[in-house]
Write a structure and sequence with these properties.
- The protein is an alpha/beta fold.
- Helices cover 44% and strands 21% of the residues.
- The chain has eight helices and twelve strands.
- The strands form three sheets. Strands 2-1-3-4-5 form a five-stranded parallel β-sheet, with helices on both faces.
- Strand 6 (128-131) and strand 7 (134-137) form a beta hairpin.
- Helix 7 crosses helix 8 (190-203).
- The chain is elongated and about 65 Å long.
- The two termini are 33 Å apart.
- The chain binds calcium ion.
- Residues 8-9, 51, 53-54 line the site of calcium ion.
């Protein structure tokens, strides 16, 4: 995850760079608005932290230019101005969140993670997953093969979606148990085998082409072979 920090105060910039790097982010720094716009529009970042008062180009103008170029990247505003107007202005220009200085690093980190989760959810969850003639509508909880609706229970649908999101990847029974049942089935991954067997009876048995493949002793993979 790459974060762009646009901040002119050396101390705050250094503090942000150190803290974010320690938390596993790659950090690019810009010390004025112009450099900030340049970096934001030439390098891919996952999130931008933007100070309001900046030399050369202020935070409002930077945000406006960034939004013309990229409507989706999460932007977190930083400001010393504890004013409702500043906050409203930032949000109306398209900032996603707002933090007033001085702020705690833990709070900043929590906001960053929440913004990234929101934006990643859009990226990683295309509404329709397709493998061969299988189509899964994640939002409508509907799966079809060859345009025939599959009558799945909620758990079967969750299992199928998990396999489909990782198509071509081997998923262990343990991982499947954790993800689908939100539990740890250390000793009894038999639950997974039973669920997969039921899913297969609906997904694969009526069709010539089989999509779920067993990797003996390890787990399962959904793949168009
Ligand atoms: Ca500043």
């Amino acid at each position: 995850m790459r974060i762009l920090v646009i901040e002119d105060e050396p101390k705050t910039a250094a503090f942000l760079q150190k803290g974010l790097t320690e938390n596993g982010f790659i950090v690019n720094l810009a010390h004025n608005g112009q450099d900030g716009v340049h970096l934001a529009t030439t390098i891919h970042h996952d999130l931008i932290i933007l100070d309001v008062t900046l030399p050369k180009l202020d935070g409002w103008s930077v945000l406006t230019e960034i939004r013309q170029h990229n409507k989706k990247i999460p932007v977190l505003f930083l400001s010393a101005r504890d004013e409702i107007q500043a906050r409203v202005k930032g949000l109306s220009l398209g900032a996603d969140d707002y933090l007033i200085k001085p702020f705690s690093f833990l709070e900043l980190l929590a906001r960053i993670h929440s913004l990234l989760r929101r934006s990643q959810a859009h990226v990683q969850e295309p509404p329709i997953l397709r493998i061969a003639d299988l189509e899964i509508d994640v939002h409508k909880h509907k799966a079809t093969r060859n345009s025939q609706r599959l009558d799945l229970t909620p758990k079967e649908f969750a299992l199928l979606s998990l396999l489909a999101r990782h198509q071509g990847q081997l998923l262990s029974r343990t991982l499947i148990a954790e993800q689908v049942w939100d539990m740890n089935f250390d000793s009894d991954t038999n639950v997974v085998d039973v669920a997969v067997r039921r899913l297969r009876s609906k997904l694969d048995d009526p069709f010539a082409k089989k999509l779920i493949h067993t990797i003996r002793g390890v787990g399962y993979v959904l793949e168009d072979r």
